[in-house]
Amino acid sequence: MNEETLLRISRTYGIENWSAGYFTVNNSGNIVAHPANQDPRSVDLKQVVEYLVRDKKLQLPILLRFPQILTTQLRLLSGAYGDAISQFGYNGKHYPVFPMKVNPRREVVEEFLKETNKYRVGLECGSKAELYAAIAQEQTPESLLICNGFKDESFCRMALLAVQSGKRVVIVIEKLNELKILLRVCQEIGAYPWIGLRAKLYTRGSGKWASSGGDSAKFGLTTSELLECLRLLKEHGKGDLLHLMHFHIGSQITDIKRVKNAMKEAARVYSKIHGLGFPVEYLDIGGGLGVDYDGSKTRTESSMNYTVQEFANDVVYTVQSVCDDEGVPHPNLVTESGRMMTAYHTVLVTSIREEIETFADDLPEVTIDQDDPQVITEMKWLLDDINGKNYFEYYHDAVEHKDELHTQFNLGMVSLEDRAKGEVLYWELCARALKESELSRHPNEEFEDVKRVLAAKYLCNFSLFRSAPDAWAIGQLFPVVPLHRLQDPKIDFATLVDVTCDSDGKIDKFVDLRDVKETLELPEWKEGQDYYLGIFLVGAYQEVMGSYHNLFGLPNEAQIHIESDGRFHVSKIVPGSRIKDMVTFARYDIDGLREGFVKRLRGLVESGQLDEKSAAKLTEQYESAATWTTYLD
Predict the structure, then answer these.
(1) Cα(432)–Cα(88) distance, integer angstroms
(2) Is 337 helix (H, G, I), strand (E, B) or coil?
(3) 469 preceded by cis ω (within 30°)?
(4) Average pLDDT, integer, range 511-524
(5) Per DSSP, what are the bridge partners of residue 24?
(6) CA atoms of 139 and 144, how far apart (whole Å)
(7) What average pLDDT score do residues 560-575 get?
(8) Tens of pLDDT along 325-369?
(9) Which of 181, 123, 121 minimizes the C-alpha distance to 150?
(10) Taking the chain, what is the end-to-end CA distance rounded to the nearest angstrom?
């Protein structure tokens, strides 16, 4: 491709801005994935999808998982803190902990724990189910198993199983009553974990999750509750169990200044508690390290105005400064940066199935008859006479004529056929006016709404609520890019709709370096041709938070290892949900459904409306349908 084409692709999709070097465009105009930034190894995503569809018989949508990216992100995180610790002469260590709530999939958790010896990787769990899975995972003895979230007696008993199995367990107290329950259960069993206290910071984060911190935060002990916990520990003679202080000001912090303020407050609380004689030696700063979803490097909600290294530098330097001022040891730093660790490693691949048109552009040209209403003849005259000088005025005339047309229709003065003529003429006028505006040196902003309405609506084979729910729930931006044909000169403006029967099942906000686009520029779609789209950066939260709206299930999944010379290895395939899986999820009994269907057919046979052979065939077809995918074939 020439430089002009590369510049257009860059301007349109901004891949180099949000991809962190994991995704680039090759000379064929296809998206390729790399295991690390600047790594010469790469794989063409279109070739991967074609192989999975052709040779492995997988149907779209397909979730591509790249475990090498997980390892690279872990290495980047640990390296950033290692560099900061070395640069500032910090005396503590860094302990990365992966919060299972971000992506509890076994493939993700086990990939991180492969590096537990090298990076002291631990796990964080916030529920009994997560804790149950975490207990059985292999960890280095030095790494941590952090227990967050609200806890009851059974949670505490399960955590003590981990203690008895030799794990370094830290139970973080979220409210005063939890400590009372824990101390009672520990005394009964005779096993004791390390204890952490989660303090509620006055400092708030920034972005969508700013409310995670501050006075109204859901989690954390107030200062008076914190002091009462310290008193209880001393009263029971268990002050030596307090090893960790925990703080969290919210996920996806967009502004680095908030991080500095939070670290000052957190380090000060740690220092004061250490000064009271408690052997606290770990400072868990929670998550918050953001992901630049739109590549703008700003404080907007889908971005962040700092790098991983800048984040680590500010944490280390700020904590060190406060501790030196207070004359207490530098704590070991525990991080729960799950979003940063996982977001990049998965791509949801879907396909465009068909276009939902605002108006059909393949209809025959409208012809005007002598008995047509005046409003229609005037609209036809506008269409024939529109040009680069008068398009703005003619567009406004067309809007008035459309309103008049509908008024006359409601009064019974215009037939259904005449209304159809008028609507076709109106949309053709809008399209012509938009084209003239785009060709002018200074396109009129008023036509942005026209562009949005006229944009093609492409039906894509996926469920937004299952695979990218944050795009619907909180307006999170995820980069959407065609996997191929990026060099094509013919461009359509489009929005995307999913296969659910919900009007909210759409993506109509797209990544842009300067703003949020309401339409996406796509190479022209042609019916009958394969057309693959990738939704990127969906590795954090989307899999676990996705719903089964309309009983659309999990997509097919493939785990891809990138080798040299464009080769790749499919290390694992996880089949997606089938119809029987989803009706079972909805608590239907598969055998009961079959019996109900057979009963209906039996009634038809007995009444003479159906013969036995046909009934048996229908039964066989019904049973077979249970194994079909929930998505479009």
Answers:
(1) 62
(2) coil
(3) no
(4) 87
(5) 32
(6) 8
(7) 92
(8) 999 999 999 999 999 999 999 999 999 999 887 655 555 677 788
(9) 181
(10) 34
Residue 537 DSSP symbol: S
DSSP letters spanning 161-219: HHHHTT--EEEEE-SHHHHHHHHHHHHHHT---EEEEEB--S----STTGGGSSTT-SS
Q: Structure tokens of 469?
A: 């729910």
Question: Which tokens in the block code for residue 153?
Answer: 């007696």
Which residue spans within 285-345 are E strands per DSSP? 332-335
- Which two three-digit tokens encode residue 389? 């000088």
Please give the Cα distance from 393 to 632 (Å, whole number): 45
| Nearest alpha carbon to residue 286 among 321, 324, 328, 258 | 258
Q: At what angle do helices 416-439 and 391-410 cross, to 10 degrees?
A: 160
In the block, residue with structure tokens 């008076």:
224
Share of the chain above pLDDT 90, in %: 72
β-sheet bridge partners, residue 351: 532
348 vs 69: CA distance, rounded Å: 15
- Angle in degrees, CA 608, 613, 615, rounded to 5: 65
Report strand pairing: 145-147 vs 282-284: unpaired
Structure tokens at 315: 């944490």
| Beta bridge pairs of residue 507 | 496
- Both tokens of 567, joined, read 């080769």
Tell me: the pLDDT tens digits for 400-459? 999 999 999 999 898 998 898 888 888 888 888 888 887 887 777 777 788 778 788 999
Q: CB–CB of 508/495 below 8 Å?
A: yes
